[in-house]
Amino acid sequence: MKGKKNNIAIFNTFKTRRNKFTGEAKRQRGILAHLATEQSPELRTRTSIAHFIAKKHGILWQNIYSGIFRDLDEVLIPSGVVKEGGRLPLRRGPRALQLEGVPFYELTEAGLVVASSIEEVGNRLELLKSYIASMSYTNTDESIMIQGLLLLIDIAPSFISKIINEYIYAYTTGLIQSITPIDMKKFQNAISNKISIERELLEAFANSQPEEQRVIRNFFNVAT
Q1: Which DSSP helix (H) or strand (E) runs through 169?
Q2: Among 74, 124, 137, 201, which residue's Cβ finds the most Cβ atoms within 10 Å?
Q3: DSSP code of 193?
Q4: Angstrom distance (rounded) from CA 199 to CA 202
Q5: If pLDDT is split at 50, 70 and 90, which confidence band does 12 have?
Q6: Whole-number Å distance between alpha carbons of 72 and 160
Q7: What percent of the chain is modeled with pLDDT above 70?
Q8: CA distances from 142 to 90, 131, 147, 184 (A)
């Protein structure tokens, strides 16, 4: 079942405009992209994140601050993709706030995987490759999965992007209950029905005669 913790909206689009992300999707994508690329804790507070996203979209940061507050506290942190990285001391303001400090945020391991599905993150496939390379496996199938993913990142980045998007989307819809660790069962549940066309093509090409393979290559050359 879909739980509240799964309400990540990064793929949400308007019902009448499927190619346009909702405001919530833009905010959450902006938060994850910023946390994936910004190193300074001072620039990873709620206010700094609001400034970053507002500047990108040409709006006032005050107009989206409450939305960012809600995205972090009600969605991204409960879902396990963002966590509080620490607190920065304040020299001015209410004494209680000075003592507590201002929180700054960072991506969790699961958050890095989610960020790898967002086009706004320039090095997103490097994030994914780093995570997958660190994975351990318990059986032959998972070893094959890891080796295959690492190779596909290098030779077929668009295809691997599709796979990871489907995997993250499966989490946002409740098809799988956690993002990390990636295991064979979750991976199959998320993508097995989504890559049937690619599998059919790959098997057909591998089983074709050299002349037939040449025809297929020529077809794709002129079609694309």
Answers
A1: helix 157-172
A2: 124
A3: T
A4: 5
A5: confident
A6: 28
A7: 93
A8: 48, 14, 9, 6
Q: Determine contact, residues 33/57, Cβ cutoff 8 Å.
A: no
Distance CA 213, CA 206 (A): 8
Q: How far apart are CA 52 and CA 123, in angstroms?
A: 18
Give the amino acid at 75: V
Mean per-residue pLDDT over the chain, rounded: 89
- This prediction has a pTM of 0.84
CA atoms within 13 A on the CB side of 134: 11
67: pLDDT strictly greater than 50:
yes
Three-state DSSP state, 89: coil
- Coil, helix or strand at residue 94: coil
DSSP structure string for 28-64: HHHHHHHHHH---GGGSBHHHHHHHHHHHHTS-THHH
Calpha distance 191→94 (Å, rounded): 51
Give the separation between CA 128 and CA 124, rounded to whole angstroms: 6
- Separation between Cα atoms, residue 188 and residue 194, nearest integer Å: 10
Exposed/middle/buried for residue 6 (C-beta within 10 Å: 0-12, 13-18, 19+): buried
Q: What is the pLDDT of residues 30-52, one digit of tens each?
A: 999 999 999 999 999 999 999 99
Structure tokens at 40: 């300074």
Is the pLDDT score of 96 beyond 80?
A: no
**Other CB atoms within 10 Å distance of the CB of residue 95:** 8
User: Which residue from 79, 187, 195 is spatially nearest to 141, judged by alpha carbons?
Assistant: 187
Q: What Cα–Cα distance (Å) separates residue 79 from each residue in 107, 109, 113?
A: 11, 12, 13
